[in-house]
Amino acid sequence: MKLPSEILDIIASHGLDSCKTSIAWSYVSSYFRDLVKKTVGVMLVQDGGHSPLEDECVRPDILDFRVLLHKNRNMLYLNSDENATIRSIECFLQNFKNIVIVIQSDRSFSDPLASTLNEIARHCTSGTNVCIIYSTTTNFLSKLYFREFGIREDKLVLSELHIIGSSALSNNADLCDVDTLFETTYIYEIDNLFSLSVKHQHHSLIAPQLTTIKQLNYNDSMLNINAFLNDCTNLEMIDSMRFPLSPNNESAGQYILPSCKVLHLNNFNSGVKYPTINGNNVSLYLKISPAIRLSDPEFSNLIFENIKKLEIDTNPSICHHVRFMNCKFPKLKKISCNSSIISWDDLKQSQAPLTSLKINLNSFEQLQWLTNCPYDLKNLDITTLNKKILDFNNNTNLYQDMKIVAKNVKFQLDSIWKAFILQNVFLTNCNSIEQLTICLDEHELYESINDCPKNLKELGFTNDGDCILIDIPYITHLTLFETVAQKSLSQNYSTQAAATKSPNSTNNRKFSYGSDISNDYGFSSDLAPVISPSLFRWNNVIGVNNESIRKNSIISFDERYSYSKRRTSSMSTTSMFSRSSFPYINDEVILDDAIVFKFNDKMPDIFTTGLGALESALFNFEDLRDKQLANLHIIYQFSQPEGIYNEGDVTGILFESISRIINYPYHLKLPGILISNLHITFKVPTEFELFDSKALETVQSLLIQSKYNVKVVNELDFHGNKSHTELCFQRL
Hints:
By secondary structure, the chain is of the alpha/beta class. The protein folds into 3 domains: 1-190, Rossmann fold, CATH 3.40.50; 236-363, no CATH class; 489-731, no CATH class. The chain contains 19 helices and 38 strands. Helix 2 packs antiparallel against helix 3 and helix 14 packs across helix 15. The protein is globular. It starts with a helix and ends with a strand. 36% of the residues are buried.
């Protein structure tokens, strides 16, 4: 059946409150395109250096609003930096009941743009259908831009808001604040929102590329937030959302949370009736935060059958007692409880198969709670935020029966209390530990010792003068790291790199670290100099012979980078720093040593550390029965020096850093220890592109050219029988 044109006109004109519908009718035929142009007014607003008419601003494949334009009939061009006459805006708006406002903004918050939009909103006639296309190159959107439209919401029909961002910024920009004032909000090319405020239940959001919402706000307890976000099909994280309330303050009913991987529920209060919270759509991680002044929260009716990790965000300076009543966590394996004590019975009843626990250990009560853990933990992470605990019970009899079962323990050592717990509980009673990671903050530990009114002997410590002596039994894998940030090698040598940029530099000093490290990592006397690969390639390009290439590419060091400051207790005539050639660590003066690690019986199978930790710690090997270390694993984090952007120079500095690690005199820091295998993990930024087979072959070739017997591998092998040195790259 063919409808008369009059009826088709009515059908078309009644659908023009939608920008997308208007565009669709314009593509049907030239007849309907002309009808749309007579009915829809288009206002073009330029905010910055680009016009909305440029194809790269609002791409036709996203929204081809240009088919709506007729230069002499329905278009008004405005520049936010120019004072448009209010009369021209008013006259234009009186001619149309359907308005499409196209904005191109190249700025972060723009007062001129806000003023222009406010004037447009004030002069729209009552009942006007408004659609807005907002395109931004900065991924910035302020709620203030549409404030006047919100004030006049009852007089206008706010139909559609289209937000178009820059895909180049979408991964790292979260500067958009979105209010769902419009009946439908579309978001394109934007991954992250700083805030999303849901105003009305019947409004909708369509954002298939959206992955993160930092703040989700809503006031209507009847809002079905799961249905509202149903068209955000790639949503992964909601970083802040308040606990949903029951309608009319009744605890009956069930509230279904939206689909995402990570969710943070906050502002939980006691005395408030909450519905049963169905979080089965949350697939990975749940973080819950009670109100700040709530001391002992009691959570109930939390149904999260798919989460693997739970974090309780409580005040870290207070020990909280937390309950989970009638809750279900059948896949929960990791808990980060801050300074909280959770009822073990509640966790068992929730069906949680717990394997990992992280806790801020600040009290003896928490320690007792840990010893009563009914789970065989695989991972236990001990941290602290209160480093000034000085008044603790040092009666070792209280600790001798404490047994904590965990295979892998990570321990933050930053106070005298933590040192006492490490020695008397974890290293004495916990025979289940296979891997121990100690994160040493020597500065905080030293301050804790100085602030303590009692001496180490009175506190029950085995001590060596003013140093705490920690007895390390045999452990399969021991890791020691320093938590105080050290200067990276790349930063230390950034000035040197600038000096070696020029192939004609005449300020070079010869550098003579050993490169024959197949047996003892630095004992060889027949040593070859370290060569800069960037200079080597340059000299090769300009036609220098091989011998000259090698001589002109030797890495040099200025004496002002030598390490001249050293703690008094460890300086000796045989120190590795007796010659000014080792600028390895931060030149921070440490007045004295706080701790000595004494190894008993035998060395661990694997000892993982960094050069900074080797320099900060003191070691005692007197009581070792077996002085062989099967695997020494060095981890180093490389960052590009400031001011160095040339690829060749960065490669040269990277290679220099590798050579420092290989040639470090481990035999002086670990005297008498026979190292069988050296493993190096070099952590570099992803943009360095060192992770494909071709790049690894290039690094291997450079090592061979510099006469290093080092194998570049994709994964370290700690179980090989043959002595070897391996280098592995990992992404930061």
